[in-house]
Known about the structure:
Radius of gyration: 16 Å
Strand order of the largest sheet: 1-2-3-4-5-6-7-10-11-12
Strand content: over 45%
Shape: globular
Number of strands: 12
Order of helices and strands: HHEHEEEEEEEEEEE
Oligomer: single chain
Structural class: mainly beta
Number of helices: 3
Amino acid sequence: MKSIYHKALGDNFHRLHPEMQKKYGLTSKQNLMILGQGRMTEIRGTHPLLRPLLQIGARDHLVFAERGKDVPFTLENYVYTDEEGRETISWIRRFFFPYSIRGFDAAMRFDEEKQKIVDCLGKTGVFQTELDLHVTAAGGLYMESKALNLKGERFLPSPVTALYEHYDEAEDAYRVHVHVEHPLFGTILMYEGTVHTEFLPMTFNNIPERGVLE
């Protein structure tokens, strides 16, 4: 059984670093979850006067206003079959600021008709986008979103999210860099850091509702 990322990349999947293949090759048949723990070197973006507006999306774990350096971070990936029988993987990100814990969540699945990964954003998944995937020369993975859709209707102007991840053998960890940019407002959110990862046993009871933790 191929993972959703293997399907999206095709033969290029084998160009990924072996540890990247292990992470992005995970399927629901393996009954494993991914637990990542690390720190984000810096979280930045959005003019300070506009940041309070981002709190609108904080409730649904779409975006948040807090910024900082050396921010503790966790990631949980659950691979499961959704109510329509589609292979789905959740991305449950938590950022631990001094006075708050913020989420940046998503659930991804592969659209067989479009041959694309669909990224359902936030806890509710009301906003959706398609992803383009590329393998870098160093065996890393670059993902970039297309225009957002809101309940099937295109949402304009919409931000573009770019995610780059590679495996650092010296650190024995994954290095991530995420950049969310809006065509009118510039950088909405940018963070980068190092994540140490474990693969842990999972049963169906471990999976939160829609694969996303409250």
